[in-house]
Amino acid sequence: MADKRYALGIDYGTNSVRALIADLDTGEEVGTYVHNYSRGVDGIILDDRDVNLARQDPHDYIEGLEASVKGALVLAESVSGCSAEKIIGIGVDTTGSTPIPVDSNGVPLAFHDEFKGNPNAMAWLWKDHTGHEESDLITRKAHEHDPDYTKYCGGIYSSEWFFSKILHLANVDPKVYGAAASFVEHCDWMTALLVGDTNPRTILRSRCAAGHKAMWNAEWGGLPSQEFLSSVSPKLDGLSAKLYTDSHTSDVKVGGLCAKWAEKLGLREGIAVSVGAFDAHMGAVGAGIKPGSLIKIMGTSSCDMMVAPPEELHAQIKGICGQVDGSMVPGMIGIEAGQSAVGDIFAWYRDQVRWGVENLLPSDLSDSSDLSDRAKGAALQVLSAKASALKPGQTGLLALDWWNGNRTILVDPNLTGLILGLTLGTKPEEIFMALVEATAFGAKVIMERIQEYGVAVKEVITCGGIAEKNPFLMQIYADVTGRPMKVSRSAQTCALGASMFGAVAAGHFKRVEEAQPLMSGLKDTVYTPNPANRQVYDRLYALYRKLHDAFGTHDFTGNLHGVMKELLEVKRNALNS
Amino acid sequence: MADKRYALGIDYGTNSVRALIADLDTGEEVGTYVHNYSRGVDGIILDDRDVNLARQDPHDYIEGLEASVKGALVLAESVSGCSAEKIIGIGVDTTGSTPIPVDSNGVPLAFHDEFKGNPNAMAWLWKDHTGHEESDLITRKAHEHDPDYTKYCGGIYSSEWFFSKILHLANVDPKVYGAAASFVEHCDWMTALLVGDTNPRTILRSRCAAGHKAMWNAEWGGLPSQEFLSSVSPKLDGLSAKLYTDSHTSDVKVGGLCAKWAEKLGLREGIAVSVGAFDAHMGAVGAGIKPGSLIKIMGTSSCDMMVAPPEELHAQIKGICGQVDGSMVPGMIGIEAGQSAVGDIFAWYRDQVRWGVENLLPSDLSDSSDLSDRAKGAALQVLSAKASALKPGQTGLLALDWWNGNRTILVDPNLTGLILGLTLGTKPEEIFMALVEATAFGAKVIMERIQEYGVAVKEVITCGGIAEKNPFLMQIYADVTGRPMKVSRSAQTCALGASMFGAVAAGHFKRVEEAQPLMSGLKDTVYTPNPANRQVYDRLYALYRKLHDAFGTHDFTGNLHGVMKELLEVKRNALNS
């Protein structure tokens, strides 16, 4: 035990922050603690007048840092005999793009009395969409520019991203905008805080955040030019000087833990703090990403992550939302794809089927939130259990999983969900199964697109709540994609990945690739494709692609007349088999 | 009161028979009585091993005749001062095609001890689909024949129809088939029974039944030839001789009420009995059908009926399931179109939304059939109430109403339902509204097709449960079609229409056209199109037609890429209006 070493990973999510202390020999999570933000609604500052607004108060970040790390330490020390002195490095991941307007000392403007309580001076949470008009403008201007700055982020600049939010701030609150000496991503601000130097001119900026959300690319020497920004809006004149030129991968050490935070957290002063990154990207590393492995993080949406050596990937993969050198594993191109709704679709359907409980019972019962909560809790389980008894193809249904648009490969938020094949005999569990299948078809489209560009998908490792909780769904994913679905051993791959980078920055590992074989792992359960099911799904997938291309592209020329008929035939076959 | 005259209409439905005594001056329904069949499940003999089987025991027809007529008479005499002597004629309508195998005396084989309890010897109810393979064969053979015998029944011979059932009987029960001296439609058997002569060689056969379900047409001299029938199957050799050559419109008198049944029913011997017809066709007459009026009978499915003078309609209207001279109003071509599911789609959705009540409650509650029944009763009301608050277009949804295939104008049972435009925010009442709109779009397609052939739709008169009970739906129909929706005054247009034909056969009226202005009428409520809503629906209808043609026809060449986007735009406009 004497030579045991540990690292700390801190994972800032949408509603809470998690600290995790990992054993650097085994990846064992010896202490983990979650702190829920105390402000707003589950940590999110909302505005009744604008559903697009979602902010966070950076006070929650600071309070959560102390609470989560101390909590994890108590557990690690009491349960596993880990002591704080053996922690040698810290890594941080956060949501993003979540920029914070700061003053010239790097203090969030939200901390100024002048802007107290003003959401515009807080952190602009990733899912804030107030900048949707600004993002349209930026996209249009980028397309007119040579080079097109959206080239490596899928061709459409999102309202969720860095410059959309900054421009929206400039448009709606010139006072806050004018007071901002810089804008710092949440992940960068946390590492700066830990090393005790938040001067925005010297903060080390994350390659992951810069490359995926701020159009940073070495090809054009960093961020988009001031000339470009001014062409988008004269209000952005002078913005370049407030931002940064370089960005850094997460193996880089920002500095040593400052005395103040060492004392607050009960850690050794000077231990390494590595450059931050986004949660999904560090999560991919924590799940063991390497060339050939597709990491599929399955939650409300999906993130489908791969890395490829630069010499193997020469082109921009069409329709992939991000392709950034070093955004996950330093030295490799990080490929970020994903489906804009997965678990969200199932949650939507859960709410459809429990609607009756809330609306069709006698008032003394329907007013009972117990019944509603119970129905909410039971719905997906009951649907999954009933659907498990169905054979592939038996539903006669086919769906397009576009309830929240399509992120990859169509990069089009203005697409919507579709269900086809409905009959008077269609049952709720059949619809649920079709929704699960649709998300699996969507996942397969992504894999095929990446492979078209010479990046081989040799294995799929899943992580996230759905991967752990729903064997029914996982089997369908295996059957549809024709690939074994492996499941990450850790349920906390983001924080685990962050801890690996902390250990790399501390010099314990030369590279994360050294940490991964020790610290990442798989569960024993692997979902293996069933050959008979796969045949049926190959047929359904061809129909899915037909609908996908018909509704999602301009150049579809086929005829859809046979789609419903073929589904009925597949259904008959399934029922007779 | 001395010269008051009345007629009796007898309406045999799927689960019950209704007798109605109508005042011939006013159409007032002075006595009406419903008798529910006592055999099988709600009057239908089923078979657990074959969901397609649906038969009726003709004993129910006989018992129901006596019970319903006597019941109506008691009411008419006690409440309205009508006396049985003042009833001068009887008309009968039934479901169809509902053929009964009979012996050479016209006695149903089900009454023979030899075949007692054998469903094959009973009446083959309209919705029996056991002959689906036989119907495919008949369709194929008809298309090879010159003339194509399906020419006036939409190009596809249905499993619900006369010859499909007879051939299926020949295939599965040669003994019953061999014992059958003839096959008599339910409506024809009832009138034969009433006049006391069921000899199948002389029974007057209904033009309506013959023309719509048995490919009877004057163009080829009656029924399909024996040569054709034998080409379908040698088992049908000799069938022609067992059937008939002529068919008759319902203004024709079959004969006088026989002494036996006059006594049983308490009516005068010798009063006129008119030739029978199907319920929807007599219902259209009862609702006041005349050239220019579309009668829309809205129930589980819809029947959309028109009549046109032969000199105004020269062609077979493409995709219309039936076009038969004299099937409704003698001397006019009866046009029968319809949607294969309307109320059935809403009932399906009702069961979707109440699923949670049955599946997601604690077992002590979910086992309570009270709660489930209550949810069933409340669902459509609650959905309608919530949907009433939505603006047209606001849902962003579009559906194809093909849950049970498409009867008119695609004549294709192998089409299925579709919903498009679903998002994470889509609510059940929005889906319900989209389903209502889809059926309204389907109704509009039928109107447009009929008009393309020069038959002007000058007014729409609705009847049936939906028309009377759901103002929300009726307003959408008005807004979608751009036509006022009138509602038939009588809720019993079938029996009312039958009584009119009884009066015509009695000579009280020369033609039903004389009876209709006196006896048919409208409710005061008329649903008038809202011009603003109509504009939105015109836009949605164009999208509906695009989907309709893309999935329903072979020759669609357009592109569907804009459909989801346009729906989103319509939605935004609706929300901002």
How would you describe this structure to a colleague?
Two copies of one chain form a homodimer. The first copy, chain A, is α/β, with parallel strands linked by helices. Chain A has 21 helices and 20 strands. In chain A, strands 1, 2, 3, 5, 9, 10 and 11 form a seven-stranded mixed beta sheet that branches. In chain A, β12 and β13 (302-308) form a beta hairpin. The longest helix of chain A is centred in the C-terminal third of the chain and has 25 residues, at 428-452. The first copy, chain A, is globular, with a radius of gyration of 24 Å. Chain A starts with 5 loop residues before the first strand and ends with a helix. The model of chain A has no long low-confidence stretch (mean pLDDT 95). Chains A and B meet through α11, α12, α14, β17 and α20 of A and α11, α12, α14, β17 and α20 of B. β17 (417-422) of chain A pairs antiparallel with β17 of chain B.
